[in-house]
Amino acid sequence: MHDIVLVVFAFAALLALVSLLLPLATRVGIPYAVLLVITGCAIGSAIRFVSPGVAMGPLSTILDALAGFNLTSQAFLYIFLPALLFETALNVNVPRLMDDVAPVLLLAIGAVLVCMFFIGFALMPFAEIGLLACLLLGAILATTDPVAVVALFREIGAPQRLSVLLEGESLLNDAAAIALFSVLAAMLTGSGAAGPLDAVLTFIRAFAGGLALGAVFGKIASAGLMMFRDHRLAETTFTVAIAYLTFIVGEQYLQVSGVVAVVSAGLVLSNDGRRKLAPSRWDYLTGTWAQIGFWASSLIFLLAAMLAPRLLADVTWHDAGLLVIVVAAAFAARAVTLFGLFPLMNAAGIGERVRTSHRLVVLWGGMRGAVSLALALAVTENAMLSPDTRQFIAILATGFVLFTLLVNAPTLRWVIHLLGLDRLPPEELALRDRAIALARAEIGEAIGRLAQDRGLSAETAGRISGGYAGHSALGIDPDAALDPTLRAYSGLGILVEREQEICLDYFENGTVSRRAIAELITLAERLHDGVKAGGPEGYLAAARDGLSFSWSFRAALELQRRLGIARPLAHALAHRLEMLVVHRLVLQDLIRFTGVKIQPLFGPATAELLHSSLKVRMAEAERATKAIELQYPRYARTLEQQFLALSALRLEDESLHRLRAESIISQEMFRSLERDLRQRRAALERRPALDLGLNRGELVGRVAMFADLDPGERAAISLMLRPRLTVPDEVIVRKGERGDAMYFISSGAVEVRIAPTPVTLGTGDMFGEMALLSGQPRMADVVSLGFGQLLSLSRRDFARLLKTSDKLRAHIQAIARERRSARPVRPQVAE
């Protein structure tokens, strides 16, 4: 056969083999990664020890092809590692990871350094190759393999927080260790940093530069995905390109850590993509990447394990003794991190407390794998290193990897069971039983209705439904089985998750915009943090914070006031109204959900607590919505009409799919109707522009004192006035400040907070003139009661106005005299 045919034949055979090993691992109860290593070692031994002339049919051809198929360490790192790390990063829940960012970073960076120094200094008295080479081995063995850890914990079904800790460590640990490996290897060969300080700076540059580069490429990927609407194949292809481009640009062009960059890009895309892509598109993307990750992880394990027999060919008893030292030092380093540094971190209030049982599992679960083998292979291929150094690192790295995979991995399930981490605590067990009982009771009722609708035997249906109905009488009283505080926390946690699901359902159905959903999902994440920090009070505090004006809205407000640029503010205000409209719809769904699902599960007391919290949120959301609707009622009706029109299109789309499924319309008719539907949806999805109504001419006409002026005077005065939009609860004038302007109210209302009774001013009124006339500081705070439109007149233009218009001067002075005498003027509203 030609060489290319042999390569394709060998790869096809390996893919067939890994596909067979996956169900075999499940059947025999061995972790898949462990079975891959065993199989790889067996193939490597066969290649090494079976004579080439032995006739075994196609098997001989496969072994010959694999024997001539010599993948270098560069091939391992550049072909498999970007796909492997990017796929793992895409599946990380970034907000959940940020909850434990301190312990994850401690494991990822601190533990790498501790492991490197422990192994290096433990080996130095017994090895003859120098401290730097021993530290290089420590860096290689500091990597916890993402495939071994993540795959094993997903399979076992470990607690979520434990999985997050290990997934975060797996990602960032490899990045930190490979960055250290590169620095130490360059120092050892004399091609890199000359001293410890240079090495530290080089490491910081590589790590920080990788983070920054990955963030940039992640944002590029996130923005690029929005261009591939209805082109899912292009979406996946683009992300594959991003993963490899990030790695290569970092390693080859910018000399930063490509591994760190890929991890950073994947995390950024995971965080943004979940918010920007509809759930079906995100599921398709991650599903395709799961297939890519399976190929990469399986092949890198198998091919790396095939090298193990060659790397261990010259092992001696002295090497075995050194391996014992390595194993002891590595586990001692991990124990120091988990049981020494973690308590110090908790005492400092950094991160959540990690239970002792979880730390024990993390201690035993620090497997090493294909990345360590690939780095060891890179050392054996480096001709600038001495033969003794290459052999020393190859044997000990390979031996330690095999020890963790053949000893730690198979026994990890037993350790988890021994610590009871695979069993639910009593309170969660009671909640589970209650949920199952309610679900089975519903099934029993549904079976009875189904039999009646289909005309089936009532007696047979009774026997089936009776079995389910029996489960509804478990005698579980949720108020007695669960602690009240736990019920409240659990119920709020369910509400937060349900809120995210409802938001994504709206997004998937195409009835709301991505912009509004992204903000509401962020709000749900804040609610999750609020529940953890303060229970119901923290939940409501986070909800109120989520409805406050964002920094971008305030920036747009300042831009309009200082430079007169209104478009960003109009966009921000339209976005806020759209978000609030959708928010109220979500809260309505949550209130219904509480009555239907939460009350049977947790009891009436907990349901009432959750219902009251939702009513508070609904009242605040309605108040925020009404504030905008009062100022822009026509635009609010337009948004409501847009939502209903998009909902109608969704129903129309469902109807078309149903007609096609029933063969009532042909495929050609269906495609034609779908094209028309997409065009109408694209037109509807464009949010209408909001007119802020800040035209000076119109605003001047609403002020009563300008009504009697001739058009020329009114036009001259309007040039002195600057339009301004106020927001609810904004302090327009502060007591004690120097007066720099006065204001005319064109629409809305303000409250002058003077003792003993505040005064409300409305459309047509003015305020702020007293300080300009007297030269004294402001006498009271003036607060906007809602969205309003003002005209501001600066101190300089105020003086000009008094000089040029006797009529206006007299009017303003008359109002000022009456206010000094505590006789407030009634609001005057222009017709």
In short:
This protein is mainly alpha-helical. Helices cover 74% and strands 4% of the residues.
Characteristics:
8 strands; globular; 4% strand; mainly alpha; four-stranded antiparallel β-sheet; 831 residues; 74% helix
Task: Characterize the structure shown.
The strands form two sheets. Strands 1-8-3-6 form a four-stranded antiparallel β-sheet. The protein has a four-stranded antiparallel β-sheet with strand order 2-7-4-5, with no helix packed on it. The protein is mainly alpha-helical and 831 residues long. It is built from 33 helices and eight strands.
What topology does this entry show?
Layout: H1 3-28, H2 32-49, H3 58-68, H4 73-90, H5 94-99, H6 101-123, H7 131-141, H8 146-156, H9 160-189, H10 196-225, H11 232-253, H12 258-276, H13 279-306, H14 308-311, H15 317-347, H16 356-364, H17 370-380, H18 387-418, H19 426-454, H20 458-469, H21 478-481, H22 484-509, H23 514-546, H24 551-563, H25 567-602, H26 604-631, H27 633-661, H28 667-685, H29 696-701, H30 711-720, E1 722-726, E2 731-733, E3 741-747, E4 750-753, E5 759-761, E6 766-767, H31 769-774, E7 781-784, E8 788-794, H32 795-804, H33 806-820
Antiparallel strand pairs: 1-8, 2-7, 3-6, 3-8, 4-5, 4-7
Helix pairs in contact: 1-3, 2-3, 2-13, 2-18, 4-11, 4-12, 4-13, 4-17, 6-7, 6-9, 6-15, 7-9, 7-18, 8-9, 9-10, 9-12, 10-11, 10-12, 11-12, 13-17, 15-16, 15-18, 17-18, 19-20, 22-23, 22-25, 22-26, 23-25, 23-26, 24-25, 25-26, 26-27, 27-28
Helix content: over 70%
Counting DSSP E segments of at least 2 residues, the number of strands comes to 8
Tally of alpha and pi helices: 33
Quaternary structure annotation? single chain
Secondary structure class reads mainly alpha
| N-C termini distance | 95 Å
| Portion in beta strands | under 5%
Poorly predicted runs: 471-476, 823-831
What overall geometry do the principal axes of the alpha carbons give?
A: globular
Biggest pleated-sheet summary: 4 strands, antiparallel
Radius of gyration: 35 Å
Q: What spatial order of strands do you see in the largest sheet?
A: 1-8-3-6
Q: How confident overall, as mean pLDDT?
A: 80
